[in-house]
Amino acid sequence: MRISPLALALSLSLGVLATGAEGRPLMSAPTAPVSPGTPSGPITHADIQAWADAWNSHNIDTVAALFSDDVVIHQPSNPKPLDMAGVRGFFSMIFKAYPDFHVEVTDAVVDGLKGVSVERVTGTWSGPFTDPATRITTPGNGRTFDHPGVMVITYRPDHKIKQVDIYWDRLVVNEQLGIVSK
Asked: Are 43 and 159 in contact (CB under 8 A)?
């Protein structure tokens, strides 16, 4: 069966595919171009490790490159979720306050486009820390932290992160760092 270019263009512009005698599409709908080397489909443990490696690089551009433009990050000490506009400031502050900040993935579960990273997080409070909730800046005191954490990470099919839910025990960390809760 032959379909005219006009009929094909009309069917594609309407989101309807022209079909043959057996109801099968004569041509696939166009898809967004995928750059060579761009992952697609379900995530793997390598995506979770890339997340930890980005944190451990202490490179803001490396971290930011993991996120979609519409990323939402829920983190216990932030009064509201972070978006892409807040990513650079947040990670800059973390890397300045804890220059040896380190994430070790101790376990991970992946399912489709969602991953759970169980982590051991360590570091030394050496630089100024600005509390996202109060905006109060406190100088470092040289104390260390070592605590478990969990990140629930939701990806897009192109493996860009669209949402992160970060879980850690702030009371434990504050105790380790000598911070008095009010």
From this structure: yes
